[in-house]
Design a protein that fits this description.
Length: 164
């Protein structure tokens, strides 16, 4: 589903490439968050019920992270995208180029985000502990607030993305 987050959000090829990578990148994010949590909270590798629940979690439902992913994709298009197609001289088509660039940028951003303990906790709350957590909206708001601080943009429900 293509959705405009700001008035000049018209790079539909880039958005399609981002949506095609959504499941793959979110699965990678969850695994990275689980690893970061282990390194930070359990460096000795001790096993308890909490740790076992995190280790045993397998991505079955990525829907709680879709809004976060789509917001990050929109921030990328807002800050770094151009609506004009450029010449790609290495023989790839635009989809391949966009997928490679977006995957690289998403990985860089999530590496930076995972350094923040609050982000790791928010992702775990939205995935591993979601059945126990009834306030998923609060967690999504925390993640949107984190993006505001990181990128200097705010997501309005009616206006879309706006630079702060």
């Amino acid at each position: 589903m293509i959705r405009k987050f700001f008035p000049l959000d018209k790079n539909y090829l880039l958005e399609e490439a981002q949506l095609a990578l959504q499941a793959t990148l979110l699965t990678r994010l969850i695994e990275q968050v689980k690893w970061e949590f282990e390194q930070r909270a359990n460096p000795l590798g001790l096993t308890d019920g909490f740790t076992l629940k995190i280790r045993a979690y397998r991505c079955q439902n990525l829907k709680p992270l879709y809004n976060f992913y789509q917001n990050m994709a929109a921030v990328y298009r807002f800050k770094y995208s151009d609506n004009q197609l450029e010449f790609v001289w290495d023989g790839r088509d635009h989809q391949e180029k966009y997928k490679a660039e977006w995957a690289s940028t998403f990985q860089e951003w999530t590496d930076e985000f995972c350094k923040q303990e609050l982000f790791v906790q928010a992702v775990l709350d939205l995935t591993v502990f979601l059945p126990d957590n009834r306030h998923a909206d609060l967690v999504e708001n925390r993640m949107n607030n984190f993006m505001l601080r990181q990128f200097g943009v705010k997501l309005h429900k009616t206006k879309g993305l706006a630079a702060m």
